[in-house]
C-alpha cells in the first residue's frame, strides 16, 4: 500500500515531465503524462506500479549518495 506522501511526491515528479513524453509499462501499454497522473491519483494497479517504480528509483539514488 502506498502513502499519501508517496502519491504527492510521484504526482509532482510526473507533473515536471514534458507534455509529449510517454512511458511504456510492459503488458499495460503506453501512457501519456496525463494518463499516468490519472492512474496515480486513482491508485489503480498501474498507478501503484508507477509509484513503486519512482520510490524504488529515489531510494536507490539515496543509497548511491551515501
Describe the structure.
This protein is α+β, with helices and mostly antiparallel strands. The chain has helices spanning about 5-15, 35-40, 45-65; strands spanning about 20-25, 30. It has one domain (about 5-65). The protein has three helices and two strands. Helix 2 (about 35-40) crosses helix 3 (about 45-65).
**Count of folded domains:** 1
Measured on Cα atoms, how large is the radius of gyration? 12 Å
Q: β content, as a range?
A: 5-15%
- Tally of individual helices: 3
Shape type? globular
- Major sheet: 2 strands, antiparallel
The assigned structural class equals alpha+beta
Order of helices and strands: HEEHH
Major sheet strand order: 1-2
- Stretches where pLDDT is under 50 for at least 5 consecutive residues are none
Mean pLDDT: 93
The share of residues in helices is: 55-70%
Distance from first to last alpha carbon: 27 Å
Q: What is the β-strand count?
A: 2
Amino acid at each position: 500500500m502506498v502513502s499519501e506522501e508517496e502519491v504527492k511526491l510521484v504526482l509532482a515528479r510526473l507533473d515536471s515531465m514534458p507534455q509529449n513524453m510517454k512511458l511504456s509499462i510492459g503488458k499495460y501499454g503506453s501512457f501519456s503524462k496525463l494518463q499516468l497522473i490519472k492512474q496515480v491519483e486513482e491508485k489503480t494497479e498501474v498507478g501503484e506500479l508507477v509509484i513503486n517504480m519512482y520510490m524504488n528509483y529515489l531510494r536507490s539514488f539515496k543509497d548511491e549518495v551515501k
